[in-house]
Amino acid sequence: MTEPLSGQAAVDQLLEVLDLKQLDAATFVGESPQTGAQRVFGGQVAGQALVAAGRTVDPDRFVHSLHGYFVRPGDPTEPIQFGVETIRDGRSFSVRRSTAQQHGKTIFFMSASFQVIEEGLDHHTPAPTGVPGPDEVQTMADWVRKYPSRRAAFNAAPRAVDVRYVNDPGWVPPGDRNASEQQRVWMRVNGVLPDDPLIHACALTYASDLSLLDSVLSVHGEVWGPGGVIGASLDHALWFHRPFRADEWFLYDCTSPSASGSRGLASGRMFTTDGVHIASAVQEGLLRRVGERRT
């Protein structure tokens, strides 16, 4: 079996995925990496949809929020077509609707808002204290050495982002996960990105979908896969508060305020290593027991 790409090679592959082909002023086409996955990773299609929207906006305007819905699983063996609708271009804000389609059907759609740089009130809640740094917690490779039976799950995960769990990850064997109300993860793109702020926003969008729903399982000490839970993202919202680089470490501090009706709600705050609050995310996901049948 071919070893998945890692480091800068994986980052370069991510950049290729985000480098959409433009067909006309409002239509773009993207591809998926061929990793053997059964469906397109949600963070990928959200990041690509943001690329498409951003390419239709004046580069002096920067994305400050996005709201998206995952409506169908994407086929990673087929191209994805993105259509962008200009909702408004005002003096300070531009709003776009970006729709991803395959086989003539929508798989994802997003509204994104872009703003010119302005000065104003500035405050944020402090970052959590007492959290070990990224060099003080286990790497994904460390976890695989501890649980070699989970190597397949590790190899199937996107490798362009270095993910380091402060708590137990959700893919340990059933019974080995300690319940926790917080799921904290250090992340960074595992290589160097271009300086384009849109690329960093798209990379952060991609990364924000990697572990957010895991905070729902963390509350219950539950895990993904056999003996645990399967899930899918239903919607995703992200707010960009301050300038950042996605190829520098940030802490993803996630909690779950509610789970019911086979759905779980998760929220996350992202902080730089020096405690600056750069972004916030909220996501709802479908969560079902493995082997559970729909009636």
From TrEMBL:
<dbReference type="InterPro" id="IPR042171">
    <property type="entry name" value="Acyl-CoA_hotdog"/>
</dbReference>
<dbReference type="InterPro" id="IPR049449">
    <property type="entry name" value="TesB_ACOT8-like_N"/>
</dbReference>
<feature type="domain" description="Acyl-CoA thioesterase-like N-terminal HotDog">
    <location>
        <begin position="35"/>
        <end position="115"/>
    </location>
</feature>
<comment type="similarity">
    <text>Belongs to the C/M/P thioester hydrolase family.</text>
</comment>
<dbReference type="InterPro" id="IPR003703">
    <property type="entry name" value="Acyl_CoA_thio"/>
</dbReference>
<feature type="domain" description="Acyl-CoA thioesterase 2 C-terminal">
    <location>
        <begin position="167"/>
        <end position="286"/>
    </location>
</feature>
<dbReference type="InterPro" id="IPR025652">
    <property type="entry name" value="TesB_C"/>
</dbReference>
<protein>
    <submittedName>
        <fullName>Acyl-CoA thioesterase II</fullName>
    </submittedName>
</protein>
<keyword id="KW-0378">Hydrolase</keyword>
<dbReference type="Pfam" id="PF02551">
    <property type="entry name" value="Acyl_CoA_thio"/>
</dbReference>
<dbReference type="Pfam" id="PF13622">
    <property type="entry name" value="4HBT_3"/>
</dbReference>
<dbReference type="InterPro" id="IPR029069">
    <property type="entry name" value="HotDog_dom_sf"/>
</dbReference>
